[in-house]
Write a structure and sequence with these properties.
The chain is of the alpha+beta class. Helices cover 35% and strands 20% of the residues. Keywords: Carboxypeptidase, Hydrolase, Membrane, Protease, Transmembrane, Transmembrane helix.
């Protein structure tokens, strides 16, 4: 910075030469410097005032705009919130194959208390007890007058309850927004849907998470914000599911059964159109898991069609016959000797009620459900080939059905698969599987010999897996199953117009601690329809059925599971778009000759 001197030498010498006073020069320079400093200070002050004025103008503009917004918006209850990560509560809907709603979200509120803000804790406690009778007045008073600063009262309340709490008028009673899971159809398809609950919770929101069924299996998809408008579409048909549960519930009561299950599966796509396990529950109010007891099937949460792993009995005989035909060992007309005695080591192999069918065809082995007949076929097949065939049908692994409970349905097979196991497994004893496994196995017979994986998701077209048997073997097996209904152990399964084919199975029920009950059975009927061109497989299982008929107590599947399945097929077949039709007649054996 260059400063002008107050007494410049040139001007002082000039002034002295003219006889003037040099001090006047200094005073004049001081006056000019002061004026310059004054001008700069004024300019600086004016700039500061301008900036301050702009700041106050902006501040008052913001305050005015906010006041205008508050004045024009709807009044809301002030809510305290703690800092933290935002909780995403939005969850995608679940719909059936036709887009009908199975699970959705419902806006509600939670109720909490901040005691330091309360005006009259005692009156507030008494008011809450009137609204929520399950609350304890004395405990509320202790909490409200203690040192606690935050107390949850109810995680979910109805709009009517919210209004009643609001009418109490205490500023310490506060509401938090909630989004809960709603199942508008109640108990319908409860074991498929499973249920949902709250995970992380905050004042402003709660995390909705799946706890069972497809809600837990597809939790990631359902919680993804990108899928908020893309519902999860299942293979279930709501109307068919409702009819199944109604018929199955009635059949379980008539047959005095402890429990029941049914699986209806498309044989080409693997889609499970309906699946039911009874007793059931309401996923809107899911019960707690049992904490005591040895039999898990006592709980309504137990999913019988995937977790119910039992020896299913004679329904397995068709697999033995189909494999023997596929290997070229026999055909449906081959004669086999089923007469006794038959022993494997020291173990005798007998027939139901000690019957002796003698020499009969392979088809009649299935029709009469001969243990010795299938046992002798199994010995021809051999243990190694038998294991490979059952493994190709998915009988050794948990079913791939997409609900979390399915992973717990691990089939039980013998450690040492010798001749005895080969024989007993041929007629459904010694290998424990679930009804869903059985449905997949029968679907392979129904669709011409290809494995299809059971799925809860809607599919586009057939979903064939590897071929497990030839078309010829599958066709002959279907004819045998049809004959079981027309002239065998499943005669009560005939449904006019729908050509039902199937096989009965009655197995002693195992005890939770080992061994078998003497008077309790698992009765199963595995069926397909229409037998001439199968579209669906239906497996019905009754747990401990018993019915009095013709003066005797009956427990076998032919008397219990079969009539229930027939009623179910008659009810759901029209819903599935199947029209009743006459069964194709067998062509007569004419021979043309010249005259």
């Amino acid at each position: 910075m260059i400063r002008t001197p107050l007494r410049p030498l040139a001007r002082v010498l000039h002034a002295r030469a003219k006889g003037e006073n040099p001090d006047l020069i200094e005073r004049e320079n001081i006056r000019l410097r002061h004026e310059e400093m004054q001008d700069r200070s004024r300019a600086r002050a004016e700039g500061r005032l301008l900036v301050l004025g702009v700041f106050f103008f902006c501040a008052f503009s913001v305050v005015g705009a906010r006041m205008g917004m508050l004045a024009s918006s709807e009044a809301q209850e002030p809510m305290a919130s703690a800092p933290g990560a935002t909780i995403a509560a939005q969850r995608a809907d679940i719909v059936d194959r036709e887009g009908r709603l199975l699970a959705t979200n419902f806006e509600t509120h939670s109720l909490y208390v901040q005691p330091p803000q309360m005006v009259d804790p005692v009156a507030a406690a008494e008011g809450l007890v009137r609204i929520f009778p399950d609350l304890d007045r004395d405990r509320l008073v202790r909490d409200f007058t203690g040192k606690r600063k935050f107390i949850w009262i109810k995680k979910r309340i109805s709009p009517e309850q919210k209004q009643a709490v609001h009418d109490i008028g205490d500023p310490g009673l506060l509401f938090g927004p909630r989004e809960m899971r709603l199942y508008p159809n109640g108990r319908l398809a409860a074991h498929v849907l499973g249920g949902a609950g709250f995970g992380r919770e905050g004042v402003d929101a709660a995390e909705v998470i799946g706890v069972a069924g497809v809600e837990k299996q597809f939790d990631g998809y359902l919680r993804d914000p990108a899928n908020g408008t893309k519902p999860l579409q299942l293979s279930l048909d709501l109307t068919v599911q409702a009819a199944m549960e109604q018929v199955l519930d009635g059949g379980m009561k008539i047959m005095s059964a402890k429990g029941a299950s049914a699986v209806l599966m498309d044989v080409h796509t693997g889609e499970v159109v309906a699946a039911s396990s009874l007793p059931s529950f309401d996923p809107n109010d899911r019960p707690r898991p049992p904490t005591s007891g040895f039999d898990p099937s006592d709980s309504p949460l137990f999913n019988r069609y995937v977790q119910g792993v039992y020896e299913l009995g004679s329904v397995f005989k068709i697999f033995t016959a189909a494999q023997a035909v596929d290997l070229g060992l026999v055909n449906s007309d081959t004669i086999i000797d089923t007469s006794g005695p038959m022993r494997i080591g020291k173990f005798p192999i007998g027939e139901f009620n000690n019957k002796n069918y003698g020499k009969i065809s392979i088809a009649d082995v299935i029709v009469h459900s001969s243990n010795r007949g299938t046992g002798r076929l199994a010995l021809q097949i051999g243990a190694e080939r038998q294991q490979a065939f059952l493994n190709s049908l998915g009988m050794f692994d948990p079913t791939p059905f997409e609900i979390v409970e399915a992973s717990g349905g691990q089939p039980l097979k013998p450690k040492n698969w010798g001749e005895l196991s080969t024989v007993t497994i041929s007629y459904g004893h010694g290998l424990s599987t679930s009804p869903m496994h059985l449905a997949a196995g029968y679907a392979a017979i129904a669709n011409g010999g290809q494995y299809v994986s059971p799925t809860v998701l809607k599919q586009k077209g057939p979903q064939y897996g590897p071929r497990v048997m030839s078309e010829s073997a599958a066709r002959q097996a279907r004819a045998m199953l049809r004959k079981v209904v027309t002239s065998g152990t499943a005669s009560f399964g005939e449904v006019p117009g729908y050509q039902v084919g199937g096989k009965t199975g009655t197995a002693d029920k195992p005890k939770p601690r080992g061994g078998y009950y003497e008077d309790k059975v698992i009765a199963t009927f595995a069926s397909l329809f229409p037998a001439s061109d199968p579209k669906y497989v239906l497996v019905v299982t009754l747990d401990e059925p018993s019915i009095l008929a013709y003066g005797e107590k009956r427990r076998t599947a032919g008397w219990t599971a079969v009539p229930v399945a027939a009623e179910l097929i008659g009810r759901v077949a029209p819903l599935l778009g199947l029209r009743p039709q006459l069964e194709p007649a067998q062509g007569a054996g004419y021979t043309l000759t010249s005259n």
